[in-house]
Amino acid sequence: MRPVLAAWLALSLLAGTGAEEMCGGPPAAPAHSIPAPQLSPEERLSPHMPESLRCDACHAIAFQIEEQLRRAEGKVGRKALSEPDYVEVLERSCSQGWESYGVQELDGEKRLAGPGLPRQEPMSVMVLGGPWPGRLSKMCHGYVGERGEEQIYEAHRRGPAALRELLCHGEKGACAGGKAGGPAPPKAMQNEL
To answer: Which terminus of the chain has a smaller tally of CB atoms within 10 A, N or C?
Structure first.
């Protein structure tokens, strides 16, 4: 019986008829096409973060600063860091690679995606690298320069919400008012005489 089975198997393989043809092949997987986000010239070429993505970028920066400072404090037993230590951590936070951030299109809207950011779609294409890491680093250094290391560290010590408020939601923050992430406040009517 074994020689007959071996002969049938050999002939089936040579002839190209096997179990697939006899029983049918596996069902075809449905094809899905997920296009990459179409970036505008500003999104592709500008050295600055596009206005529409600045709020997301600010939240990513606040998340990374918070994570780096939390790790550094963990190494010293959760005590407050000295000024030279937190200045070094902030510099390291802004100078990191930022390679895990990119842009995805969600419901027709381009959004920055990566660690610490909400609304990441598993079934979408994310464009990583390119101009995004440099833009995030530049924004981070700008925040540290504008707000100052001491003010940023004090906000961190009050908690993640305080740091996000300081960097992103204040009067001039990237998420303030009608900027990227909320409706514009109504304009005040002017008296016309």
So the answer is: C
